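Appendix B, record 7
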Amino acid sequence: MVLIKDKETRSLLGCGIAVPVVFVGVILVEGALRPGYTWPHRFGSELALGERGWVMIANFIVTGLLVMGFAAGLRRALAGRDGATAAPVLAALFGCCMIVGGVFVTDPKPGYPEGAVVPAEPTLHGTIHDANPVPFYLTLIALVCVLARRFASEPGGRPWMWFSIVTAVAVPVTFALAASSYDMESGSGGFHGLWQRINLAIGLGWVAAVAVRYLRAPGLDDRTKARTNAAPSCPASPRA
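Structure tokens (predicted):
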């Protein structure tokens, strides 16, 4: 039964590795293939509009479910350790924010999709979508900080602590660069799409890196090793 639990934990943590591959991958591919969509100057959420909008909507929801699977894996991997409650809860909330981003689609922006009518006033779903980045980034940064503290107390965890600290700074900085490149009144800007993709690669890439770390952590097999070490050894043969 212990071995089955370890396999389940590894599968759940593996969801974290898929997070940036799926989410950022879909944004990059769809952004390159969509007619009329100039990805350096468009937010990824705008891909949820138009005939193929279902692809981006599914991307949000599937990635959110992957993050929640990763949260369950963290809960198992950190059981009885620092951050065992806060980290999984924050990761699950982060996953919920991703699902919200797919369920509540952004409003059309000037120029995309071609021929779409931009509402004079934001719709309810557009307002919810535009407000969603606040809890999205707050939960992600809080998760990074909680695990940075955890890494600081682990043997050999200092490099991971610094990696997390750099991530906790880089995520809001790149988000600010994307936001400052976009004009809310005109619905246009320059290179905010590029900065957003860099931002997502940093934040979600950290999730994947942490998943790899805990997948390689010996703690997942401690029970198995303890059982092996507890086995009685053969007595030494008496000398002739």
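Remarks on this record: The chain has one domain: 2-114+123-220. Residues 2-33 form the longest helix (32 residues).
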